[in-house]
Structure formats: structure tokens, C-alpha cells
Task: inverse folding
């Protein structure tokens, strides 16, 4: 069973020409690919069955998640392949008590931390090919919780400035 899906299919247009020859999650940050940080953090918290999807998607799409619905655990994790974080997955799971999803959030933004935990039933709320951004999905949920902690960080490497910030912080 798949415990986590890492979305690694963005085009990385804001990082061109760097992404003309390498996908954004494979960009090196402090000596290793961004994707390595993402998968390592999941494994640190006992998540061993990770699917890395390199299918192109501008946003989190329900169709992409529904494609793997029968193989997903309940609940399951979604992580952005271009966001480095040290978020404590076990503590996120503790927030899942009576809600449909938990979103790693900094400064009260719904999806900027790049890590989400969903109950499998949320996939029943969307059509199989429907493109759906995270805030739109959250609007359909009965409930969700935000998770943040002072010791958690994240670095989205989606622009040259953000990439450089991550490289400086993690060297």
C-alpha cells in the first residue's frame, strides 16, 4: 500500500534554464537533490511506501490522486517534490482525530508547507479527471486542521531566489 505520494511533475518554468535539463525536484540543494530531502523526511517518520509521481500537474489534481486511490493507505500523505521540510509527520497525524485532512502550514496559509495528510474518503468528493487545487479541495471537506510548530521549517525551491535561500540555509 502507498503511504505517501510525492508530487514531482511540475515544469519548473520559473527556474529555467536550470530546469531545461533537470526536473525541479532533482535540483541540488546543499549537496543532494531536493527530492532526497522530501523522501528522507517521510522515512524519518516511518513512511516507507512512497510513490513519486513525475506526471505533469500544475496543481494538486484529484485525478492524479484518484488514479492511485485503490493503492493508498487511509489516511495518506501528499508532499510537494519541490519543498524541503523537517515537519514532524507523527505530530501531524495526531491532529487528524476528527478531521478530514491536516495541512502543514506556516503563518496560517493553507498549503505553503508542502505536506498534507488526507483521509481517503476525500477522494470521493471529486471527479476522476477534475483539476483541483488544495484550497478548493479544502472547501469541500467537512473539516480540516492546520499544523505548525516553531521547530518546523520549509523551503519551496520554485524560484531562483527561493532556491538560493534554501541552499544558504541548508549548507
Result:
Amino acid at each position: 500500500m502507498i503511504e505517501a505520494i510525492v508530487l514531482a511533475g511540475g515544469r519548473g518554468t520559473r527556474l529555467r534554464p536550470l530546469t531545461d535539463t533537470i526536473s525541479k525536484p532533482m535540483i541540488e540543494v546543499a549537496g543532494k537533490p531536493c527530492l532526497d530531502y522530501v523522501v528522507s523526511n517521510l522515512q524519518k517518520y516511518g513512511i516507507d511506501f512512497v510513490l513519486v509521481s513525475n506526471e505533469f500537474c500544475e496543481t494538486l489534481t484529484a485525478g492524479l490522486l484518484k488514479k492511485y486511490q485503490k493503492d493508498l493507505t487511509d489516511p495518506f500523505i501528499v508532499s510537494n517534490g519541490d519543498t524541503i521540510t523537517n515537519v514532524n509527520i507523527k505530530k501531524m497525524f495526531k491532529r487528524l482525530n476528527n478531521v478530514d485532512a491536516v495541512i502543514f502550514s506556516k503563518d496560517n496559509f493553507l498549503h505553503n508547507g508542502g505536506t498534507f495528510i488526507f483521509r481517503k474518503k476525500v477522494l470521493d468528493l471529486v471527479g476522476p479527471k477534475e483539476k483541483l487545487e488544495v484550497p478548493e479541495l479544502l472547501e469541500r471537506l467537512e473539516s480540516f486542521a492546520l499544523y505548525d510548530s516553531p521547530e518546523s521549517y520549509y523551503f519551496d525551491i520554485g524560484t531562483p531566489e527561493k532556491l538560493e535561500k534554501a541552499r544558504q540555509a541548508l549548507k
